[in-house]
Specification:
With about 725 residues, the chain is mainly β.
Length: about 725
């Protein structure tokens, strides 16, 4: 039975109001996308019966062509809103190969027409039929005259809840533009866009395309679709952080450590300043009058892990001043954005817990202000709505998993609403001056597990299958029985699976995960989990399904000792370092004293040394690979070999010891293809272990006997999409 508009449906403490199109819990609205609410209406309408996938797709997404993954993703959003468990469902049951069934008991409460009311209801005699006041419609509460004042008061609260929800929706579209049902369209189709920005009038789109280790700058006429490549000096091979001037006549960009400007209608780029040091997602942001711009600078050399500053540059007198500075662990991170009223500059920042947040810096005096918003695992970019009433954020929160989605965040209240909820990754955000259209780079990544023999790497074969998979990107390990344990994310949330090296017996081990490592004997998995206040490492004994906490804190990249008795990991805190904890539990102890962050540790076969990548807190890898004495924590050697190790998309900067302990293997990507290279620890030149001419490697692991490799290998494409709001 399909859901009728104008009814109330009550189930297990929730009320679905189809007249107002809102889900309530305890009289308070729950934030859900229109598609999620539509899907819930269909399931509730046929409660107790299986609703086929095809029907759900045709009814909920009748106006667009989407894949089945959108249905899976939206089901997961509903389960999160209902606090439902897919494995022991109270509300939504998955029926394998068919569809879904709403299994909770549903009460249908009609909205009452006052003209058809009974003249009197004896409360004492009819108490058994009185519905809970929190589940009644506003109209029925006003007209059931015999109800006590307490019930009327509850009705009044429900009215307020509805009004509050309406105001929330209004705030999302105060300038007349709503992104609740945004129209998303592809603008480019080459699959190699690195970054993009739209002019304030919406007429031009500037974007960077990566081609054969070079980057080209292009200008697109949005109205007629014409593309023109901008001629740049041949030495300008790496371009970042595009930004249009307020008048739209010129584009600013970063090259190496300098900031340049070129005119849209043609000309030669001119250097604006040398000490720009712009990191990724750190384009300049202009004041409303266009006379100043601001940006974020790390230290004085662009790579300091200790400090970051918001710098304001006066274009009239070519001078700069530091508006505010930060120091680890509370560190300005990226994406400065000047408010339309000129009073506040916001940016993404790290906090002491290793999570990310939006901070505001008052332009008048440099005071740092907290900006209410959800907890973010990552914030890639922040921009203002032109009306100043809110922000757009590209980031990852608890609901979006490790994929960055586009959010609308009200200001200064901090309510966040999804604009996108899919299995893509969004980047490089900009908006037209009228606030109507957002442009973003959307990335599509796919990874599967591949296996090859070390002696004949050309014979490589894929052992996992499926669409929109992220197999092994953040975690992949061999066990002593030649099995493979890996992380994947079939619906955007990380899970842990195992598979035999021939591709047989693939099965899930855990429905949570992150930064995973498996013990050599195949008994334990260690992974990061927990809520914002309870983050830490957990140990899972999968043979006994026993889960145990090992640490509390923002801990990353665990590596088992060869004997499997301990793990070494990176801890982000006031005291960032490599730490060590017994796998059976106990006190974690600090191992290193290096100022910069040491990440991705890997033990030598004899357990005497640890290889780790030196990184700054900004996430930018520095050159050295450090060799560390496993007992003392002292760095005994540094190798300059990781300059080309970074690949595209989500990946792990994995390093692995060679079986003889004389070299380090790592990933190197050149001209769109990734291979494993080997760097001898004596400092002699590296050499390629594999010679693939296509495909990207996002992570890899060497078998314990050194005879085979397992790769997380696949593709990564990026194009510009427009997101058009509705009036």
């Amino acid at each position: 039975m399909p859901v009728d508009q104008g009814q109330l449906y009550r189930f297990e403490g929730f009320v679905l109001d189809t007249n107002e199109n809102v889900l309530l819990e305890g009289g308070k609205p729950i934030s859900l996308s229109p598609k999620a609410l539509h899907l819930l209406r269909v399931l509730v309408g046929d409660h107790g019966r299986i609703v086929e996938k095809d029907r759900l797709m045709s009814e909920v997404w009748a106006d667009s062509f989407v894949e089945d993954s959108n249905l899976t993703f939206t089901i997961r959003k509903l389960r999160q809103a209902l606090n439902d468990d897919a494995h022991a469902p109270k509300f939504i049951e998955t029926v394998s190969r068919r569809g879904y069934r709403f299994v909770a008991k549903v009460e249908i409460l009609d909205i009452v027409d006052p003209d058809n009311l009974e003249p009197e209801i004896d409360v004492q005699d009819r108490s058994d039929v009185l519905p809970d006041s929190a589940s009644l419609s506003r109209k029925s509460l006003l007209y059931r005259r015999p109800l006590a004042m307490g019930a009327l008061f509850c009705g009044f609260l429900l009215i307020l809840a509805g009004v509050a929800y309406g105001l929330f929706r209004l705030m999302d579209s105060r300038d007349g533009v709503s992104f609740a049902e945004a129209n998303i369209s592809r603008i480019t189709s080459n699959g190699s866009v690195q970054t993009a920005v739209v002019s304030p009038d919406g007429k031009f789109l500037a974007y960077v395309v990566s081609e054969n280790s070079r980057q080209g700058l292009w200008l697109k006429n949005v109205a007629n679709g014409g593309n023109v490549q901008i001629e740049l000096p041949s030495e300008m091979t790496f371009i970042t952080n595009l930004a249009f001037a307020p008048d739209g006549d010129s584009v600013y960009f970063g090259h190496r450590n300098a900031l340049y400007r070129f005119p849209v209608l043609g000309g030669v780029p001119s250097k604006i300043m040398d000490n720009y040091l712009g990191a990724d997602y750190n384009r300049i942001t202009f004041s409303p009058d266009g006379k100043q711009f601001a940006f974020l600078r790390f230290g004085q050399d662009g790579e300091s892990s200790e400090t970051a500053s918001i710098v304001v540059y006066d274009t009239a007198i070519s001078s700069e001043r530091i508006l505010a500075s930060s120091k680890r662990p509370g560190l300005f991170l990226r994406s400065a954005a000047w408010s339309p009223d000129g009073k506040i500059i916001v940016c993404a920042a790290l906090n002491a817990d290793g999570a990310q947040e939006v901070l505001g810096i008052r332009v008048a005096d440099g005071e740092v202000l907290s900006v209410p918003s959800p907890t973010w695992a990552t914030i890639r970019q922040v921009i203002w709505r032109p009306d100043g009433e809110g922000l757009f954020v590209i980031g990852e929160n608890d609901d979006s998993g490790f994929l960055s989605q586009l959010f609308s965040v009200s200001f200064p209240h901090g309510e966040a609403k999804n604009i996108t909820s899919d299995l893509n990754d969004y980047q490089s955000l900009s908006i037209t001056g009228d606030g109507r259209t957002v442009f973003a780079v959307r990335a599509q990544q796919e990874s599967h597990i591949w296996v090859t023999d070390a002696e004949d790497a050309k014979k490589v074969r894929r052992i996992t299958t499926g669409f929109q998979k992220f197999d092994g990107i953040y975690g992949i390990n061999w066990t002593r029985d030649n099995g493979i344990v890996y992380e994947t994310a079939p619906s955007g949330k990380i899970e842990i699976w195992s598979v035999n090296s021939d591709g047989s017996e693939a099965r899930p081990l855990a429905t949570e995960g992150g930064s995973m490592s498996a013990s050599p004997d195949g008994r334990y998995i260690v992974f990061q989990s927990g809520g914002a206040a309870e983050t830490g490492f957990f140990r899972l004994d999968w043979s006994q399904a026993e889960k145990r906490r090992l640490t509390t804190g923002t801990d990353l990249d665990p590596a088992f000792t060869p004997d499997g008795k301990s793990i070494v990991f990176t801890r982000y805190s006031d005291d960032v370092a490599l730490w060590k904890v017994p796998v059976e539990g106990g006190e974690a102890k600090k191992l290193t004293t290096e100022a910069d962050m040491l990440s991705f540790p890997s033990f030598s076969p004899d357990g005497n040394y640890i290889a780790a990548v030196r990184q700054s807190s900004s996430g930018k890898a520095l050159a050295p690979l450090c060799i560390i004495d496993a007992k003392t924590g002292e760095i005994v050697k540094e190798l300059q070999m990781l300059q080309s190790a970074v690949t595209l998309g989500h990946y792990k900067m994995s390093v692995q010891w060679s079986p003889d302990g004389k070299a380090i293997d790592y990933i190197r990507s050149i001209d769109g293809a990734s291979n494993v290279w080997r760097q001898p620890i004596d400092g002699s030149p590296p050499s390629a272990i594999t010679t693939y001419d296509n495909g990207l490697i996002f992570n890899f692991a060497t078998s314990l006997d050194g005879t085979r490799y397992a790769f997380a290998r696949g593709s990564y494409d990026r194009d510009v999409f427009s997101v058009i709001g509705s009036k």
